[in-house]
């Protein structure tokens, strides 16, 4: 479909595509999880920054682009998967409400930084889907997947 194609912009003399596809937030126990999904157009290293804007001030939560603030540093961690950068903010309370921003930049990428915002309000957050725990513990999931053929083989033998 045409919507997936990058249309060249004459001004830049280069195709410009939105790298960040989607930004979503959910509650995982007492933690806030913010998922920043992107389309990987390059194998260049990816840098990221998660920040929050509240009271018209930007606070960096976790970043490889700039320095994160002390109050968040001990509570935040980020995991990177294929096409997904995940922020986990522990002990999430109403004081952590605000506009969360995900900023991604691929090294040597001419399109510049890609930014997307989401407003996070505790009462309006949904619980994260159950499988998110499996993603955090990939080895367990891998074991499960590897054991499936064995389970099927055992069933076959018992016949």
From TrEMBL:
<dbReference type="GO" id="GO:0005925">
    <property type="term" value="C:focal adhesion"/>
</dbReference>
<keyword id="KW-1015">Disulfide bond</keyword>
<keyword id="KW-0732">Signal</keyword>
<dbReference type="GO" id="GO:0005096">
    <property type="term" value="F:GTPase activator activity"/>
</dbReference>
<keyword id="KW-1003">Cell membrane</keyword>
<dbReference type="InterPro" id="IPR007110">
    <property type="entry name" value="Ig-like_dom"/>
</dbReference>
<dbReference type="InterPro" id="IPR036179">
    <property type="entry name" value="Ig-like_dom_sf"/>
</dbReference>
<dbReference type="InterPro" id="IPR013783">
    <property type="entry name" value="Ig-like_fold"/>
</dbReference>
<dbReference type="GO" id="GO:0030334">
    <property type="term" value="P:regulation of cell migration"/>
</dbReference>
<protein>
    <recommendedName>
        <fullName>Thy-1 membrane glycoprotein</fullName>
    </recommendedName>
</protein>
<keyword id="KW-0336">GPI-anchor</keyword>
<comment type="function">
    <text>May play a role in cell-cell or cell-ligand interactions during synaptogenesis and other events in the brain.</text>
</comment>
<keyword id="KW-0873">Pyrrolidone carboxylic acid</keyword>
<dbReference type="GO" id="GO:0005178">
    <property type="term" value="F:integrin binding"/>
</dbReference>
<dbReference type="Pfam" id="PF07686">
    <property type="entry name" value="V-set"/>
</dbReference>
<keyword id="KW-0393">Immunoglobulin domain</keyword>
<dbReference type="GO" id="GO:0043209">
    <property type="term" value="C:myelin sheath"/>
</dbReference>
<dbReference type="InterPro" id="IPR033292">
    <property type="entry name" value="THY1"/>
</dbReference>
<keyword id="KW-0472">Membrane</keyword>
<feature type="domain" description="Ig-like">
    <location>
        <begin position="10"/>
        <end position="119"/>
    </location>
</feature>
<dbReference type="GO" id="GO:0030425">
    <property type="term" value="C:dendrite"/>
</dbReference>
<dbReference type="GO" id="GO:0051894">
    <property type="term" value="P:positive regulation of focal adhesion assembly"/>
</dbReference>
<dbReference type="GO" id="GO:0007155">
    <property type="term" value="P:cell adhesion"/>
</dbReference>
<dbReference type="GO" id="GO:0045121">
    <property type="term" value="C:membrane raft"/>
</dbReference>
<dbReference type="InterPro" id="IPR013106">
    <property type="entry name" value="Ig_V-set"/>
</dbReference>
<keyword id="KW-0325">Glycoprotein</keyword>
<dbReference type="GO" id="GO:0007229">
    <property type="term" value="P:integrin-mediated signaling pathway"/>
</dbReference>
<dbReference type="GO" id="GO:0009897">
    <property type="term" value="C:external side of plasma membrane"/>
</dbReference>
<keyword id="KW-0449">Lipoprotein</keyword>
């Amino acid at each position: 479909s045409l919507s997936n194609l990058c249309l060249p912009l004459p001004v830049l003399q280069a195709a410009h595509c939105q790298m960040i596809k989607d930004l979503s937030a959910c509650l995982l126990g007492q933690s806030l999880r913010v998922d920043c999904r992107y389309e990987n157009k390059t194998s260049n290293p990816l840098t990221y920054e998660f920040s929050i804007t509240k009271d018209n001030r930007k606070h960096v939560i976790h970043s490889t682009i700039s320095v994160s603030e002390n109050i968040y540093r001990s509570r935040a961690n980020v995991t990177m998967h294929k096409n997904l950068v995940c922020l986990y903010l522990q002990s999430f309370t109403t004081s952590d409400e605000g506009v969360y921003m995900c900023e991604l930049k691929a090294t040597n990428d001419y399109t510049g930084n890609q930014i997307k915002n989401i407003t996070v309000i505790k009462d309006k957050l949904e619980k994260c889907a159950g499988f998110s725990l499996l993603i955090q513990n990939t080895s367990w999931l891998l074991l499960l997947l590897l054991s499936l053929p064995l389970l099927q083989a055992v069933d076959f033998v018992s016949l």
